[in-house]
Amino acid sequence: MDNKDDVAVVIAPLHLQSHLRQLLHFACRISSYGLPVYYLGLAASNSQARQHSTTLNPSDIEKIHFHDLQIPNEDPPPNIPMHIWHASMRTREPIASFLGDLSSKARRIVVIHDLLMSYNVQDISSYPNGESYVFHCLPIFDMYCSHYAPAAGFPIPLEEELLKKLPSNDGCYNPEDVEHHAKYLNHCMGKNAGDIFNTSQVIDGTAIVDSMANLATIQNKKLWALGPILLTQDHDKVQIKHFCLDWLNKQPPKSVIYVSFGTSTSFSAEQIKELAIGLELSKQKFIWVLRNADVGDPVNNKCEENRSGTLELPEGFEERVKGVGLVVREWAPQQEIFAHPSTGGFMSHCGWTSCLESIIEGVPIAAWPIQFDQPKNAFLVAEVLKIGLHVREWEQRNELVTASTIQNIVIKLMASEEGDMIRKRAQELRKAVKRSTEEGGVSRMELDSFIAHITR
């Protein structure tokens, strides 16, 4: 029997939209090698992942075996994303049951899971034919600079001037959340056989990737930087219909800045007002996805997108910007927007999925980090890769970003020689990243290496 025929791959994502999508794209990549892939999630999360992965070929999604995990109905905690975390914590038993059944049918079970799902998949270590790998939905740059290098006492391979400007970890994480996660994760750490990162040497830099790989070797683990794994479609082959794409079709090339802050960010009413005024004053074309953080109860199959009915814009704003700007109060097809020839810039919170999507399409970024890995991502984009601008420095994170600041940043990115140079570098990076994922490219070789390893 061919090794590939008796190796089963199990994907266990965290139930957050960006994580669900990254791991579904990776599932399809693995499936393309002829391996059976099982995608485990709550019913609502599995449905959301399929619906929002619009650039995936439907025939590729059909090859994935989706398994809806059944967990007890309980009232979820009210906070985002903690209620998703608690929902995930209750999936250990159904995941263990699924793995137990699969272990008797496959020569080897390979579990690929989100770091924050380590507690839930820990039972894989009890099966002699089981092994697990952590899939990081973050760049190596953040993980190494923020966590691994400081803990190990290793140097960060950056020039002195960049090191001085590297943002601190202050304000990135809620200490209570960190303590809560550590309570469950600490005793699970070290059980996995290796780490997978959705990034590449082309993006994070060879020095950073090599430094992380050296740490992995010391820990007797393997590491693969095989991204970006987000699959794309040519603009002329996009089949999804959405009113914002119709609007983009009427705009000049590279003239529109796309403004979106992900699914876990909410702004104050005052900040929304300043952002609206800033966009209007810039007189640049824009699409603005205006919404609060996603809400809902994934336990009871009620994951919803906040329709932002309570978010108010300045009186008459939408009428005044009609033809120049478009406000979207629902989910938007982000990858298709980046791929559209009329899109020329992106104002972002710098979540890693959003960064990757913009990098893949060569769209420069106005970086406005809010939390988590985002400050380091923004630094990587603006200071290291030089494909973006800072909206404001991380040290000023608690200050209101004024309309005049937003106006100036938008004009600089969209209508200045400096912005044109940034856009040119973004396009050059796009081409380099594309080459890395093609036959013989560094990321493709990393992916081939991973597949060879798990089918050994």
Automatic annotation (TrEMBL):
Recorded superkingdom: Eukaryota
Single GO MF descriptor: UDP-glycosyltransferase activity
Record-annotated Glycosyltransferase N-terminal domain positions: 5-229
GO biological process: glycoside biosynthetic process
Signal sequence region: none
Transmembrane residue ranges: none
Keywords of this entry: Glycosyltransferase, Transferase
One Pfam family from the record: Glyco_transf_N
Coiled-coil positions: none
Alphabetized Gene3D superfamilies for the sequence: Glycogen Phosphorylase B
Family: Belongs to the UDP-glycosyltransferase family.
Entry protein name: Glycosyltransferase N-terminal domain-containing protein
